[in-house]
Design goal:
Layout: E1 2-8, E2 13-19, E3 24-28, H1 34-43, E4 47-52, H2 64-71, E5 75-78, E6 108-110, E7 114-118, E8 121-127, E9 136-140, E10 145-149, E11 152-153, E12 156-157, H3 167-178, E13 186-189, E14 195-196, H4 197-203
Parallel strand pairs: 3-4, 4-5, 5-6, 10-13
Antiparallel strand pairs: 1-2, 2-3, 7-8, 8-9, 9-10, 11-12, 13-14
Helix pairs in contact: 1-2
Cofactor: Zn(2+)
Pfam family, one: Lactamase_B
Organism: Bacillus chungangensis
């Protein structure tokens, strides 16, 4: 299995594809430009099995409808943001001059940390609130990578000035859930370059001195 990073949408949010040898994939955070993403999937002859959202801010959900309708696949989202897909005020799009709303709610609501098995894929779901109340991170032990959404970036952290954000909660999530992963774990952030747990432990100025 391996990952592919695809920046999409007005904020160039990182969408990720987790691929297996059978040309199946999981889609994480399809943030926009649905036609571009569908074209890529067709070109690579990939068969998506599900859409998994790290959270429901508008820049992470813009292509949900396009992909879900095209492939008839389920959308996974934490229950704390169940209403956000359908509400431009909750998902933040109205604040930035957009009107992003999905046509239907998520198909699968995550209500606890758990192991997800979708086809041949196995993921650990960690609740990592702080950037938003329903933020989750998806860890693939097989690929030694965690899809962290906007919780942790290369030498930075997610903003906490949006609805439901909490700075101390965010730092706690990072320390308790992400920095406890093996140091060689790749961190796949919602924006910017891929980093690693080791790099963030050593170089992230926001994490030093927190306990």
């Amino acid at each position: 299995m391996n990952w592919k990073q695809v920046p999409l949408g007005p904020l160039q949010t990182n969408c990720y594809l987790l691929l297996n040898e059978h040309k199946e994939c999981l889609i994480f955070d399809p943030g926009g430009e649905g036609n571009k993403l569908l074209t890529l999937l067709a070109k690579e002859a990939l068969q998506p099995l599900a859409i998994l959202l790290t959270h429901a801010h508008f820049d992470h959900i813009g292509a949900v409808d396009d992909v879900r309708e095209h492939f008839n696949i389920p959308v996974y989202l934490h229950k704390n943001e169940a209403k956000w897909l359908l509400d431009a005020n909750l998902n933040g799009s109205s604040r930035f001059g957009f009107d992003v709303q999905a046509k239907a709610p998520a198909d699968k609501l995550l209500d606890a940390e758990q192991t997800l098995r979708i086809g041949d894929f196995k993921l650990q779901v960690f609740e990592t609130p702080g950037h938003s109340p329903g933020s989750v991170s998806y860890y693939s032990q097989e690929t030694e990578a965690v899809c962290a959404g906007d919780t942790l970036f290369m030498e930075s952290i997610g903003r906490t000035d949006l609805r439901g954000g909490n700075h101390n909660q965010l730092l706690q999530s990072i320390h308790d859930k992400l920095l406890t992963l093996p140091e060689n774990t790749l961190v796949l952030p919602g924006h910017g370059p891929v980093t690693s747990v080791e790099n963030e432990m050593d170089s992230n100025p926001f994490l030093h001195g927190f306990s």
